[in-house]
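Quick look at the format.
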Amino acid sequence: MLNGERIDPVPVWMMRQAGRHLPEYRETRAKARDFLDFCYTPALAAEATLQPVRRYGMDGAILFADILLILDAMGRNVRFLEGEGPRVDPATKASDLANVPMDKILSHLAPVGETVERVRSALDTSTTLIGFCGSPWTVGVYAIEGRGGTDKADSRLFGYQHPAELDGMLDHLVEASARYLKMQADAGADALMLFESWAEGLPEDAFDRWVIGPTAKLVQRVRALGVKQPILGFPRGAGMLVVDYAERTGVNAVGLDTAIPLKRINQMLPKGLPVQGNLDPMRLVVGGKDTERRVHDIIASLKDRPHIFNLGHGVTPEVPIANVEAVLKAIRSAS
């Protein structure tokens, strides 16, 4: 499907499908010392990856990991604080992300490659295994600000005041991310996804320099390393700039967030480009007939192009399992 063919019924997986809404996930999570230990223990991370496929019959399995592992491998002291989220030792210059040699970065991330191998060997060949990393700008925001959930003011200010330093940071992240993605591809990932979680709120010129440019470099570098697997980009919050993103980054497919108007964007995106999305996760919490009608509307709006059904963001912890099952039934009956 990511190569441009329309499939009916539309394939489906859900961002954060492995997570706290599943009791089996919570049981597995309790076996790890902390979240990083969870991500770096291949047996546990592989189990978390496989759980939603077993329970729901998802067409895709998304690798269980975190976009900040690469900063942890770069020595930025990543930690996850209960009730507060991730924290990172802030970087103030490009060289802060170049202190750790590339071979040590990849060695640090080697457990992720083992997780991919374990999952691929356990999955049926009909289920797509999706590897991923954070896109350079999004990971760079964490590196500069030391945390997520901000309005990115500090990162934007840094970029305007020190453009060469930010460009250097993003270049370091491009190279490390490309090597990391190649590791996942070599280990058995069928497709690769770039999460641009902090794309929202950027003016057009900044989006061009900090999102489109580095993403295009990353895709080019991954291809130069010999990776053939399709690449899906998800610039969450990009609004109508998603069209420029789709046309200029080289990704093979684009993820659409909750706020994207489907009928309009369907007319603007390149013909035949696969898209993914975009049910509001809050509808998954509520469920019911209105949610099922929205499922049908999304599929109908994208009926003339390749489409992977997904959410516009991730599954939240309070989502009832029965609602996921009902949405999957609606997806499969609508096509």
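Next, a different chain entirely:
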Amino acid sequence: MLRLHDVSVGYGSHLALAPVSGAFKAGALTAIVGANGAGKSSLLKAMVGLVPCASGHVDRGSLRAAQVAYLPQQAALDRSFPISVGDLVGMGDWARSGWAGALFPRLRGRIDAALASVGMAGMAGRSIAALSVGQFQRVLFARLCVQDAPVLLLDEPFAAVDEATTRILLDLMLAWGRDGRTVIAVLHDLAMVRAHFPQTLLLAGGPVAWNATTDVLPAAGLPASLALPWDAS
């Protein structure tokens, strides 16, 4: 579904990510790991088309833009925008129904179901500005549910959220995997990666390893030359 052909990313004269080549297995859960500044977010942005590739290209096959869902880091989002929870979740269906889609009873039912799936039932009318960090992340996942894309790119989906929210959202991601969707997530919890993500791409300014998680992140921990400050092994 998604194949990288010598994809590199640069900002001005700074090369944020050296060329990466390989394919994400369709229907697999793949973790992207690496220390801060390793190029993880830059790779996701290149894959979704938010930044140009400095070299190479991303082959999305027959996927349309709306079939690749992207969840950025919360810090990149403006929560002061005056929009309700329900309208934000309904934006996941924008490619199919347009801006007026949230008015349709069909979509309202899907919005309510998506919010219920993340433990936010009955909160469609609340302003997003009134939400906690964990609640807002749940709402963003509900929007992904409404988008119903076969490929999902998630940038640090559990950053700064509480344990209960992490558990709910992880269960949802695992359910997407069981449904045959391709989930690619930037993660920092290596124990979580080892337990739930069969494939791992390790970056350090470029590709270090991309294979089965048991090979990339062995239970004994990373070699000293590749040790990361947050390796919990």
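The chain is about 30% helix and 25% strand.

See the schema section for token definitions.
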